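Interim report, section 4.2 (structural modelling).
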Amino acid sequence: MATGRTHRPATRSRGIPEATVARLPLYLRALTALSERSVPTVSSEELATAAGVNSAKLRKDFSYLGSYGTRGVGYDVEYLVYQISRELGLTQDWPVAIVGIGNLGAALANYGGFASRGFRVAALIDADPAMAGTPVAGIAVQHTDDLDRIISDNGVSIGVITTPPGAAQQVCDRLVAAGVTSILNFAPTVLSVPEGVDVRKVDLSIELQILAFHEQRKAGEDAAAEDEGAPPMRATPAGRKGPDGDMPAVMPA
Amino acid sequence: MATGRTHRPATRSRGIPEATVARLPLYLRALTALSERSVPTVSSEELATAAGVNSAKLRKDFSYLGSYGTRGVGYDVEYLVYQISRELGLTQDWPVAIVGIGNLGAALANYGGFASRGFRVAALIDADPAMAGTPVAGIAVQHTDDLDRIISDNGVSIGVITTPPGAAQQVCDRLVAAGVTSILNFAPTVLSVPEGVDVRKVDLSIELQILAFHEQRKAGEDAAAEDEGAPPMRATPAGRKGPDGDMPAVMPA
DNA sequence: ATGCCTTTGTGAACGCGTGCACAAAGATAG
DNA sequence: CTATCTTTGTGCACGCGTTCACAAAGGCAT
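Predicted structure of the assembly:
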């Protein structure tokens, strides 16, 4: 069980709470919009509503970065944009490799939100030899066989996995072996990575399932038992446990 | 400020913590995999590692659902699959409409993970008249003008927004007016919705930015100031605040 | 039937995140 | 220069989520 860790960054990140880090991009986006409208300063109240958060939370978040901001006035937009960008590491160029050029991979390759934030799609990689050379979003797809070299040559440290679930772990291992230390995983798989490698997971169907839960709570509850097909009471398919007739514990709740 | 709320479900959801709900799909996936391998029972320890979580957390999560599980043995896989599915509302059919059939919308329409979880893509909607009628993932794209009727006719209560950011709020309003009460938003926009409507947000570039932050912490820190272009010290572009010469507070940290 | 062994279910402690509420800080007007 | 007004920055309290650790519960062997 040496390589079990997943998803939690081990290093607590120099005092800035993880929850705050997750909100910084939100602030940055709102600030960028203000900057484009040439708004010079903004109060915590205004910026908070623009970002969809509480103003107290926003101020506390900023306090972790330092005392940017002028009492009685607010925050200087340009200055704050720069500070947050720097804190997030967006002042440097991040070459990104996308592995698995299916529908989703292609969509990500075309996604504009990356380039505008300092992320550059440096390579597209797929296991299908037929795709090799095909341009997607203006970039030629390369074959998995060359993964190692591609990662090294481009200095890629962030990899995006959009492969089928069965291939995800293998691709992940190869990426890590090639030097990738941050992975954004779209495959519905739990990835095992060595210490020091960060994995973030985006699962499209999970989000829908969470919505369905709340949706059921909203609409349902009154129409409680709709049709109610027979719950699979087969706690003992054939193998173990109970040759003692039927299972009584079918309706525990 | 009547329609300000976003993202937080107001109803606390009958005692099941939000964090637990968010993990149920994870457990469900792991259990489904076990089920396909015809594994009859599983211990909290095994299931926890398969789902990538702590075993104590898993047991506590399940305790909110009720006392399914047998001490000394573990959990019956099939039974648990059913219970979690029911709790999440996946035993019923959820017609989903996707609005904005660009690269991402098309990718989602083709995504297999939806259908296998009880979600059915009932309609694809786009504002481009040229796309109307075009089949995507076997479904003909319909025009935004008919959005209202499409939602009603199909009984859609969950909408997915994959439009450009500028159109997101408008589409959102129309979806809500048509009866949608849950929205999965892929556009980088803060949506305003009335009370009772749930919004979940998936932002691809935010995830990358969070990774970049940790990446910078890992690799950087020693190579602290790389090239360091001039930080925008223009705290006063022209308008307000300070005709008092230069700003001293350029390097507060 | 009895005792051992495994695994669940949960009480309790702890730590993180959130929100309140206010004092300190600075701008602005007189 | 003084008073007033605005807005930040933060100490504090509270609640949620996580984790530990163990008693209760059940299976299984003898």
